[in-house]
Amino acid sequence: MKILTYFEVKDGEIKKASFETASKAAEIAEKLNGEACALFVGENISEEMAKSPSRVNIKKSYILKNESLKTFSNSIYASAISNFAKEREFDAILFPATSTGKDLAPIVSAYFDVPYISDVIKVDVENGDVTFVKPIFSGKAMKKISVEENCFVASLRVNVFPVIEKHCETLVESVEAKLDDVKSSKVTGYEKGSSELLDVAEADIIISGGRGMKGPENFEMLAEVAKLFGGAMGASRAAVDAGWVPHSHQVGQTGKVVSPSLYIACGISGAIQHLAGMSSSKVIVAINKDKDAPIFNVATYGIVGDLFEIVPLLKEEIKSLKG
Ligand SMILES: Cc1cc2nc3c(=O)[nH]c(=O)nc-3n(C[C@H](O)[C@H](O)[C@H](O)COP(=O)(O)OP(=O)(O)OC[C@H]3O[C@@H](n4cnc5c(N)ncnc54)[C@H](O)[C@@H]3O)c2cc1C
Protein backbone atom coordinates (compact mmCIF):
# COMPACT_ATOMS: atom_id res chain seq x y z
CA MET A 1 0.00 0.00 0.00
CA LYS A 2 1.31 3.49 -0.88
CA ILE A 3 0.27 6.40 1.37
CA LEU A 4 0.96 10.10 0.93
CA THR A 5 0.96 12.27 4.03
CA TYR A 6 0.51 16.01 3.58
CA PHE A 7 2.97 18.37 5.30
CA GLU A 8 1.53 21.81 6.00
CA VAL A 9 3.94 24.73 6.14
CA LYS A 10 2.96 28.09 7.58
CA ASP A 11 5.23 31.12 7.98
CA GLY A 12 8.23 28.98 7.04
CA GLU A 13 7.53 26.32 9.65
CA ILE A 14 6.05 22.84 9.44
CA LYS A 15 2.91 22.50 11.54
CA LYS A 16 3.34 19.98 14.36
CA ALA A 17 0.10 18.26 13.35
CA SER A 18 1.84 17.19 10.12
CA PHE A 19 4.23 15.05 12.15
CA GLU A 20 1.31 13.52 14.10
CA THR A 21 -0.38 12.48 10.84
CA ALA A 22 2.88 11.32 9.28
CA SER A 23 3.62 9.12 12.32
CA LYS A 24 0.32 7.33 11.71
CA ALA A 25 1.01 7.04 7.97
CA ALA A 26 4.41 5.46 8.71
CA GLU A 27 2.80 3.02 11.17
CA ILE A 28 0.09 1.92 8.69
CA ALA A 29 2.65 1.48 5.92
CA GLU A 30 4.87 -0.62 8.17
CA LYS A 31 1.96 -2.87 9.21
CA LEU A 32 0.91 -3.40 5.57
CA ASN A 33 4.44 -3.75 4.16
CA GLY A 34 3.76 -0.58 2.21
CA GLU A 35 5.39 2.80 1.77
CA ALA A 36 4.53 6.17 3.33
CA CYS A 37 5.81 9.33 1.61
CA ALA A 38 5.63 12.98 2.63
CA LEU A 39 4.16 15.60 0.33
CA PHE A 40 5.08 19.28 0.47
CA VAL A 41 3.42 21.78 -1.84
CA GLY A 42 4.71 25.21 -2.78
CA GLU A 43 7.56 27.21 -4.19
CA ASN A 44 9.31 28.02 -0.92
CA ILE A 45 10.02 24.54 0.43
CA SER A 46 13.72 23.93 0.94
CA GLU A 47 15.33 20.52 0.55
CA GLU A 48 16.35 20.69 4.21
CA MET A 49 12.74 21.24 5.27
CA ALA A 50 11.55 18.36 3.08
CA LYS A 51 14.02 16.11 4.89
CA SER A 52 12.40 16.71 8.29
CA PRO A 53 9.92 13.78 7.94
CA SER A 54 13.03 11.64 8.60
CA ARG A 55 12.08 12.23 12.29
CA VAL A 56 9.03 10.02 11.93
CA ASN A 57 10.31 7.21 9.71
CA ILE A 58 9.24 8.66 6.34
CA LYS A 59 11.86 7.65 3.81
CA LYS A 60 10.75 9.70 0.81
CA SER A 61 9.57 13.31 0.46
CA TYR A 62 8.16 15.00 -2.59
CA ILE A 63 8.00 18.74 -3.21
CA LEU A 64 5.33 19.76 -5.70
CA LYS A 65 6.33 22.99 -7.41
CA ASN A 66 4.59 25.33 -9.81
CA GLU A 67 4.24 29.10 -10.18
CA SER A 68 0.50 28.74 -9.44
CA LEU A 69 1.20 27.12 -6.07
CA LYS A 70 2.85 30.24 -4.62
CA THR A 71 -0.19 31.09 -2.51
CA PHE A 72 -2.68 28.60 -1.15
CA SER A 73 -5.83 27.98 -3.16
CA ASN A 74 -7.81 24.88 -2.24
CA SER A 75 -8.84 23.81 -5.75
CA ILE A 76 -5.43 24.46 -7.36
CA TYR A 77 -3.59 22.65 -4.55
CA ALA A 78 -6.14 19.81 -4.71
CA SER A 79 -5.67 19.48 -8.46
CA ALA A 80 -1.86 19.32 -8.08
CA ILE A 81 -2.03 16.80 -5.25
CA SER A 82 -4.57 14.45 -6.86
CA ASN A 83 -2.81 14.49 -10.26
CA PHE A 84 0.46 13.66 -8.53
CA ALA A 85 -1.12 10.88 -6.42
CA LYS A 86 -2.73 9.34 -9.53
CA GLU A 87 0.45 9.52 -11.61
CA ARG A 88 2.59 7.93 -8.88
CA GLU A 89 -0.11 5.34 -8.07
CA PHE A 90 -0.71 6.20 -4.44
CA ASP A 91 -3.67 4.45 -2.78
CA ALA A 92 -4.39 6.86 0.04
CA ILE A 93 -3.67 10.38 1.29
CA LEU A 94 -3.68 11.58 4.90
CA PHE A 95 -4.10 15.20 6.00
CA PRO A 96 -3.90 16.77 9.46
CA ALA A 97 -7.39 18.15 10.23
CA THR A 98 -6.08 21.72 10.57
CA SER A 99 -8.20 24.41 8.94
CA THR A 100 -6.15 24.05 5.74
CA GLY A 101 -6.35 20.25 5.89
CA LYS A 102 -10.13 20.37 6.37
CA ASP A 103 -10.39 22.75 3.41
CA LEU A 104 -8.19 20.69 1.11
CA ALA A 105 -8.90 17.03 1.91
CA PRO A 106 -12.53 16.76 0.67
CA ILE A 107 -11.65 18.43 -2.66
CA VAL A 108 -8.65 16.12 -3.09
CA SER A 109 -10.89 13.10 -2.41
CA ALA A 110 -13.33 14.26 -5.10
CA TYR A 111 -10.58 14.79 -7.69
CA PHE A 112 -8.82 11.57 -6.66
CA ASP A 113 -12.19 9.78 -6.75
CA VAL A 114 -11.89 7.91 -3.45
CA PRO A 115 -13.97 8.11 -0.22
CA TYR A 116 -13.20 10.82 2.35
CA ILE A 117 -13.17 10.18 6.09
CA SER A 118 -13.02 13.36 8.15
CA ASP A 119 -11.99 14.16 11.72
CA VAL A 120 -10.59 10.72 12.53
CA ILE A 121 -9.59 10.05 16.15
CA LYS A 122 -8.39 6.44 15.84
CA VAL A 123 -6.68 4.48 13.07
CA ASP A 124 -5.85 0.77 13.11
CA VAL A 125 -5.01 -2.05 10.77
CA GLU A 126 -7.22 -5.13 11.15
CA ASN A 127 -6.83 -8.18 8.88
CA GLY A 128 -5.19 -6.06 6.21
CA ASP A 129 -7.87 -3.32 6.31
CA VAL A 130 -7.19 0.19 7.56
CA THR A 131 -9.99 1.07 10.01
CA PHE A 132 -10.96 4.54 11.20
CA VAL A 133 -12.99 5.75 14.16
CA LYS A 134 -14.66 9.18 14.06
CA PRO A 135 -17.17 10.86 16.39
CA ILE A 136 -20.71 11.40 15.10
CA PHE A 137 -23.83 13.11 16.49
CA SER A 138 -21.69 15.69 18.35
CA GLY A 139 -19.60 12.96 19.92
CA LYS A 140 -22.56 10.99 21.30
CA ALA A 141 -21.50 7.96 19.25
CA MET A 142 -18.41 6.68 17.47
CA LYS A 143 -18.48 5.37 13.91
CA LYS A 144 -16.04 2.72 12.69
CA ILE A 145 -15.20 2.82 8.99
CA SER A 146 -13.10 0.79 6.60
CA VAL A 147 -12.76 1.39 2.88
CA GLU A 148 -12.61 -1.08 -0.02
CA GLU A 149 -9.08 -1.80 -1.19
CA ASN A 150 -7.71 0.70 1.33
CA CYS A 151 -8.18 3.60 -1.11
CA PHE A 152 -9.09 6.75 0.82
CA VAL A 153 -8.43 10.34 1.77
CA ALA A 154 -8.67 10.99 5.52
CA SER A 155 -8.08 13.89 7.88
CA LEU A 156 -6.77 13.18 11.39
CA ARG A 157 -7.86 15.31 14.34
CA VAL A 158 -5.06 17.55 15.63
CA ASN A 159 -3.42 16.76 19.01
CA VAL A 160 -4.92 13.26 19.18
CA PHE A 161 -2.14 11.17 17.64
CA PRO A 162 1.34 11.23 19.20
CA VAL A 163 4.44 12.14 17.22
CA ILE A 164 6.44 8.89 17.17
CA GLU A 165 10.13 9.69 16.81
CA LYS A 166 11.82 7.03 14.68
CA HIS A 167 14.71 8.44 12.67
CA CYS A 168 15.63 7.35 9.16
CA GLU A 169 17.22 8.73 5.98
CA THR A 170 14.80 10.71 3.78
CA LEU A 171 15.29 11.19 0.04
CA VAL A 172 13.81 14.34 -1.49
CA GLU A 173 12.45 14.69 -5.03
CA SER A 174 11.13 17.91 -6.54
CA VAL A 175 8.34 17.46 -9.05
CA GLU A 176 6.76 20.00 -11.42
CA ALA A 177 3.07 19.91 -10.51
CA LYS A 178 0.49 19.19 -13.19
CA LEU A 179 -2.59 21.33 -12.86
CA ASP A 180 -6.02 20.92 -14.41
CA ASP A 181 -7.82 23.93 -15.72
CA VAL A 182 -9.93 24.22 -12.55
CA LYS A 183 -12.23 27.10 -11.71
CA SER A 184 -10.65 28.57 -8.65
CA SER A 185 -10.79 31.48 -6.29
CA LYS A 186 -7.63 33.56 -6.32
CA VAL A 187 -6.01 34.34 -2.98
CA THR A 188 -4.50 37.80 -3.23
CA GLY A 189 -3.01 37.96 0.24
CA TYR A 190 -3.28 37.13 3.92
CA GLU A 191 -3.71 39.42 6.89
CA LYS A 192 -2.74 38.36 10.38
CA GLY A 193 -5.55 38.38 12.96
CA SER A 194 -5.26 40.75 15.90
CA SER A 195 -4.83 38.07 18.58
CA GLU A 196 -1.31 37.29 19.76
CA LEU A 197 -2.60 34.03 21.18
CA LEU A 198 -2.40 30.64 19.51
CA ASP A 199 -5.34 29.28 17.53
CA VAL A 200 -7.52 27.09 19.78
CA ALA A 201 -7.59 24.32 17.17
CA GLU A 202 -3.87 23.77 17.51
CA ALA A 203 -2.99 24.77 21.08
CA ASP A 204 -1.87 22.23 23.63
CA ILE A 205 -3.34 24.19 26.56
CA ILE A 206 -6.65 26.06 26.37
CA ILE A 207 -8.49 28.15 28.94
CA SER A 208 -12.08 28.87 27.90
CA GLY A 209 -14.80 31.10 29.26
CA GLY A 210 -18.57 30.98 29.02
CA ARG A 211 -21.57 33.05 30.03
CA GLY A 212 -20.31 32.86 33.62
CA MET A 213 -17.55 35.34 32.64
CA LYS A 214 -20.28 38.02 32.83
CA GLY A 215 -18.80 40.36 30.18
CA PRO A 216 -16.08 40.94 27.56
CA GLU A 217 -13.77 42.81 29.95
CA ASN A 218 -13.28 39.68 32.07
CA PHE A 219 -11.87 37.65 29.16
CA GLU A 220 -8.65 39.69 29.52
CA MET A 221 -7.96 37.63 32.67
CA LEU A 222 -8.27 34.38 30.65
CA ALA A 223 -6.08 35.76 27.85
CA GLU A 224 -3.38 36.50 30.45
CA VAL A 225 -3.52 32.95 31.80
CA ALA A 226 -3.43 31.58 28.22
CA LYS A 227 -0.34 33.69 27.52
CA LEU A 228 1.38 32.42 30.68
CA PHE A 229 0.69 28.85 29.56
CA GLY A 230 1.77 29.58 25.97
CA GLY A 231 -1.70 28.37 25.04
CA ALA A 232 -4.97 29.64 23.59
CA MET A 233 -8.17 31.23 24.85
CA GLY A 234 -11.44 29.54 23.97
CA ALA A 235 -15.09 30.43 24.51
CA SER A 236 -18.54 28.91 24.57
CA ARG A 237 -21.12 29.94 21.98
CA ALA A 238 -23.02 31.91 24.61
CA ALA A 239 -19.97 34.15 25.09
CA VAL A 240 -19.44 34.45 21.31
CA ASP A 241 -23.13 35.16 20.58
CA ALA A 242 -23.07 37.87 23.24
CA GLY A 243 -20.28 39.54 21.23
CA TRP A 244 -17.73 39.19 24.05
CA VAL A 245 -15.21 37.16 22.02
CA PRO A 246 -14.69 36.65 18.25
CA HIS A 247 -16.10 33.48 16.70
CA SER A 248 -12.58 32.21 15.92
CA HIS A 249 -12.33 31.33 19.65
CA GLN A 250 -15.54 29.30 19.80
CA VAL A 251 -15.20 25.66 20.83
CA GLY A 252 -17.94 23.17 20.02
CA GLN A 253 -20.25 21.78 17.40
CA THR A 254 -20.50 25.04 15.47
CA GLY A 255 -17.04 26.21 16.54
CA LYS A 256 -13.70 24.43 16.55
CA VAL A 257 -12.95 20.90 17.68
CA VAL A 258 -10.00 20.78 20.08
CA SER A 259 -8.01 18.01 21.77
CA PRO A 260 -5.42 19.77 23.96
CA SER A 261 -3.46 18.18 26.80
CA LEU A 262 -5.21 20.56 29.20
CA TYR A 263 -8.62 22.26 28.82
CA ILE A 264 -9.81 24.62 31.56
CA ALA A 265 -13.51 25.53 31.35
CA CYS A 266 -14.48 28.63 33.35
CA GLY A 267 -18.17 29.45 33.83
CA ILE A 268 -19.23 26.99 31.12
CA SER A 269 -22.20 24.73 31.90
CA GLY A 270 -21.16 21.86 29.60
CA ALA A 271 -23.97 21.74 27.02
CA ILE A 272 -23.68 18.79 24.62
CA GLN A 273 -22.77 21.16 21.75
CA HIS A 274 -19.82 22.51 23.76
CA LEU A 275 -18.71 19.02 24.82
CA ALA A 276 -18.73 17.96 21.15
CA GLY A 277 -15.77 20.26 20.64
CA MET A 278 -13.63 19.51 23.66
CA SER A 279 -14.47 16.20 25.33
CA SER A 280 -11.48 14.45 23.73
CA SER A 281 -9.11 16.78 25.67
CA LYS A 282 -6.67 14.74 27.75
CA VAL A 283 -7.19 16.58 31.07
CA ILE A 284 -10.28 18.73 31.67
CA VAL A 285 -10.53 21.15 34.58
CA ALA A 286 -13.94 22.71 35.23
CA ILE A 287 -14.50 25.80 37.36
CA ASN A 288 -18.19 26.37 38.02
CA LYS A 289 -20.18 27.62 40.98
CA ASP A 290 -22.99 25.13 40.30
CA LYS A 291 -21.97 21.70 41.62
CA ASP A 292 -24.56 20.05 39.34
CA ALA A 293 -23.29 21.64 36.11
CA PRO A 294 -22.95 18.90 33.42
CA ILE A 295 -19.37 19.97 32.67
CA PHE A 296 -18.36 18.11 35.87
CA ASN A 297 -19.44 14.81 34.24
CA VAL A 298 -16.55 15.04 31.77
CA ALA A 299 -14.06 16.89 34.00
CA THR A 300 -10.90 15.20 35.26
CA TYR A 301 -10.75 17.80 38.05
CA GLY A 302 -13.66 19.93 39.17
CA ILE A 303 -13.56 23.11 41.25
CA VAL A 304 -16.92 24.20 42.66
CA GLY A 305 -16.56 27.91 43.25
CA ASP A 306 -16.56 31.44 41.92
CA LEU A 307 -14.28 31.76 38.90
CA PHE A 308 -13.56 35.40 39.81
CA GLU A 309 -11.80 34.11 42.94
CA ILE A 310 -10.23 30.99 41.42
CA VAL A 311 -8.83 32.25 38.09
CA PRO A 312 -6.74 35.07 39.72
CA LEU A 313 -5.32 32.51 42.18
CA LEU A 314 -4.51 30.20 39.26
CA LYS A 315 -2.78 33.08 37.46
CA GLU A 316 -0.62 33.91 40.48
CA GLU A 317 0.26 30.24 40.96
CA ILE A 318 1.40 29.83 37.32
CA LYS A 319 3.35 33.09 37.53
CA SER A 320 5.24 31.91 40.61
CA LEU A 321 5.86 28.45 39.09
CA LYS A 322 7.29 30.11 35.98
CA GLY A 323 9.50 32.30 38.19
C1 LIG B 1 -27.22 23.86 16.81
C2 LIG B 1 -26.49 24.37 18.03
C3 LIG B 1 -25.11 24.48 17.95
C4 LIG B 1 -24.39 24.94 19.07
N1 LIG B 1 -23.02 25.02 19.01
C5 LIG B 1 -22.35 25.37 20.11
C6 LIG B 1 -20.90 25.41 20.10
O1 LIG B 1 -20.25 25.19 19.10
N2 LIG B 1 -20.27 25.73 21.26
C7 LIG B 1 -20.94 26.03 22.41
O2 LIG B 1 -20.30 26.32 23.43
N3 LIG B 1 -22.29 26.03 22.44
C8 LIG B 1 -23.00 25.72 21.32
N4 LIG B 1 -24.36 25.76 21.36
C9 LIG B 1 -25.03 26.37 22.53
C10 LIG B 1 -25.15 25.44 23.71
O3 LIG B 1 -26.36 24.70 23.61
C11 LIG B 1 -25.21 26.26 25.02
O4 LIG B 1 -26.24 27.18 24.94
C12 LIG B 1 -23.90 27.01 25.31
O5 LIG B 1 -22.80 26.14 25.22
C13 LIG B 1 -23.98 27.58 26.73
O6 LIG B 1 -22.85 28.34 26.99
P1 LIG B 1 -22.33 28.54 28.46
O7 LIG B 1 -22.03 27.22 29.07
O8 LIG B 1 -21.27 29.56 28.41
O9 LIG B 1 -23.58 29.25 29.18
P2 LIG B 1 -24.60 28.72 30.26
O10 LIG B 1 -25.20 27.43 29.85
O11 LIG B 1 -25.48 29.84 30.58
O12 LIG B 1 -23.65 28.40 31.50
C14 LIG B 1 -23.00 29.37 32.26
C15 LIG B 1 -22.34 28.65 33.43
O13 LIG B 1 -21.58 29.56 34.16
C16 LIG B 1 -21.67 29.23 35.54
N5 LIG B 1 -21.33 30.45 36.30
C17 LIG B 1 -22.00 31.63 36.36
N6 LIG B 1 -21.31 32.51 37.12
C18 LIG B 1 -20.19 31.87 37.56
C19 LIG B 1 -19.09 32.25 38.39
N7 LIG B 1 -19.00 33.48 38.91
N8 LIG B 1 -18.15 31.33 38.66
C20 LIG B 1 -18.23 30.08 38.14
N9 LIG B 1 -19.25 29.67 37.37
C21 LIG B 1 -20.20 30.55 37.06
C22 LIG B 1 -23.12 28.80 35.72
O14 LIG B 1 -23.26 27.97 36.87
C23 LIG B 1 -23.37 28.04 34.41
O15 LIG B 1 -23.09 26.65 34.56
C24 LIG B 1 -25.10 25.30 20.26
C25 LIG B 1 -26.49 25.17 20.31
C26 LIG B 1 -27.16 24.72 19.20
C27 LIG B 1 -28.66 24.59 19.29
Would you kindly provide a written description of the structure presented here, covering whatever features stand out?
By secondary structure, this protein is of the alpha/beta class. The protein folds into two domains: 2-176, Rossmann fold (3-Layer(aba) Sandwich), CATH 3.40.50; 205-321, Rossmann fold. The chain has nine helices and 17 strands. The chain has helices at 16-31, 47-50, 74-87, 99-112, 219-229, 237-241, 272-278, 295-298, 307-321; strands at residues 2-6, 9-10, 13-14, 35-41, 60-65, 92-96, 116-120, 122-126, 129-136, 141-146, 152-156, 171-176, 205-209, 232-235, 262-266, 283-288, 301-304. The strands form four sheets. It has a seven-stranded parallel beta sheet with strand order 7-11-6-1-4-5-12, with helices on both faces. The structure holds flavin-adenine dinucleotide (FAD). Residues 210-212, 236-239, 250-255, 267-269, 271, 273-274, 277, 287-290, 293, 306-308 line the site of flavin-adenine dinucleotide (FAD).
CATH superfamily of the largest domain: HUPs
Class by helix and strand content?
A: alpha/beta
Distance between the termini: 51 Å
Q: What's the SSE pattern? A: EEEHEHEHEHEEEEEEEHEHEHEHEH
Number of domains: 2
| Major β-sheet strand ordering | 7-11-6-1-4-5-12
What radius of gyration results from the CA coordinates?
21 Å
What's the architecture of the largest domain, going by CATH? 3-Layer(aba) Sandwich
Listed once per kind, the bound small molecules are: flavin-adenine dinucleotide
The shape is globular
Uncertain residue ranges: none
The averaged pLDDT comes out at 94
Strand content: 25-35%
Largest sheet: 7 strands, parallel
What name does CATH use for the topology of the largest domain? Rossmann fold
The share of residues in helices is 25-40%
Total number of helices: 9
Total E-strand runs: 17
CATH class of the largest domain: Alpha Beta
